[in-house]
Structure prediction request, 175 residues.
Amino acid sequence: MTSFVRTGGVVVAALAASLALTACGSDDDAGKGSDAGSSATPGDGQGSAGAGTDAAALEGTWVGLTGGKNVTVSITAGKVALVADQAVCQGDVKDMGEVMLALKCTGGANDRTMGAIESNDGKKLVLSWDGGVEDTLTKAAPGKLPTDLPSLPSDLPSLPEMPEAPELPEVPSAS
Prediction:
């Protein structure tokens, strides 16, 4: 239980990122709309000369701390999911003369909607966002959670007991 509690935030972030990636679209979206084909996907030749990074080099899950808060970015097949602080964002890897991350966020968050790749050596990714935030992230090994994240405070309050559900009357049959 202790190890789960210490990494619980990462588990939640990773699950949210995975859900966001799998909910990004459907087969009905294929080939429709003005954005069709505008995402830079691995191997499509839309890589960037800027920052020496192409879309394929961004693939995977990247984790780190910015301002003491967890940041997780997952990139798969040109789709991006980001969980940072209380924001959940999703979008695309775009080729705009250089590879950029174009996101839409929930909850009014707007400090991570357009991101430039400052550097990427395959192990460390530095993103500079239009809202002034800079994230320095480390590539997470597939199937493994990072171990260098801070633990939760030990003085968290306990949850209150749940009340018993009241007895419900039996519903008469319709026969």
User: Anything to note?
Assistant: The chain has a mean pLDDT of 73. Residues 2-22 form the longest helix (21 residues). Residues 59 and 76 are 6 Å apart (CA to CA).
